[in-house]
Specification:
about 140 residues; globular
């Protein structure tokens, strides 16, 4: 077990259970490993905390909780990065932004593909997509 001091306080974690981003996240290429923080409140949002930089954490969600028609599929390069086959489960997540005005947005243009089998994730930018990086929640 290891510990890290974060905005959430001191956290003890097992390095074998980290969420690993082999390529980092967009804009954060040196951040590879994250702790998935347990939800203290019920709801569709959760935090991931970087173990590479204790000052960095992101709020994530399953975008289909808010946008029922949001569908993106991993291509072969994503599956290879996640080290999964076509039969393995792959979930789609979005980064959530909560600005000071509380008008929450989801980044639907750069989804995160996550494999529970390998505990790996990759964030990709969708090219030629109608999705936007700051999509407001539906009314």
């Amino acid at each position: 077990m290891r510990t890290i001091n974060t905005r959430f306080g001191e956290i003890e974690y097992d390095p074998d259970n980290l969420l690993h981003f082999p390529a980092g996240m967009i804009g954060f290429p040196t951040l590879h490993d994250f702790i998935v923080m347990p939800n203290k409140k019920e709801g569709p949002l959760f935090w991931i905390q970087s173990t590479d930089d204790a000052a960095i954490a992101f709020v994530l969600t399953d975008p289909s909780n808010f946008f029922l028609d949001y569908r993106v599929e991993p291509d072969e390069s994503v599956k290879n990065a996640l080290k999964i086959s076509a039969e393995d489960a792959c979930y789609v997540l979005s980064v959530v932004t909560v600005p000071k005005d509380q008008k929450i947005t989801l980044n639907l243009a750069a989804p995160i593909f996550f494999s529970p089998k390998t505990n790996r994730a990759i964030q990709v930018i969708l090219e030629n997509s109608e999705y936007k990086p700051k999509t407001p929640l539906p009314a």
